[in-house]
Amino acid sequence: MEDDRLSPRTPSICVFCGARPGSDPAFLALARSLGVALAQRGWTLIFGGGHVGMMGEVADAVLGAGGRAIGVIPQRLLEREVAHTRLDRLEVVADMPIRKTRLIELADAFIALPGGFGTLDELFEVLTLSQLRYIAKPMALTGVQGFWSGLDTFSRTLLGHGYISPHDWSQVGQFDGEHAVEQTLNWLDQRLDQRMPQSLNQRGDPSAVIPSDHPS
Fold this sequence. Notes:
By secondary structure, the chain is α/β, with parallel strands linked by helices. It is 41% helix and 18% strand. The protein has one domain: Rossmann fold, CATH 3.40.50.450. It has helices at 25-41, 53-64, 75-79, 96-106, 117-131, 149-160, 166-170, 180-191, and strands at 12-16, 44-47, 69-74, 89-93, 109-112, 139-143, 172-176, 208-211.
């Protein structure tokens, strides 16, 4: 199995985001900005493997800026021809739950950009695993125009009713606006273990791997 690390100190960042572009052009601009910034830092993109919507935009930006991108996609979505075909590696798995597990395994940290139910599902999976101490990987919410403010309000409702602890929500970075990407990556940089977690050496093999020269 190919090693995902470019160097012992190079993190892999999983980006959760929409398979649709959203109603505001600012969302796609945010995805492009993040992709370029990840490539400039030499950080590897881990994402859902699609070429559509926000997912495709961030991957195209990473690759266009000379960065590295690894996708994980379920077989059904591959058959629907929504897979990105220019990645450094595309892993094909059996279903959506396995995809989510694999994304979490591959990542050293997570960023949620604007998205829909799938993005929320992935986000809450990471938050729950963190709350239960199954993983200890930083998670950031990155948006524009107050996209994540509603989730912050709801989470504070959960906090007020005692369903989450102050520690649980305080560990989530929240960034919005013109400088959100730079602030997000600086925040993650401070929290990433410079030794890189040992779990990077314990990643399971995917069901299938499509190399970068796989024909579309």
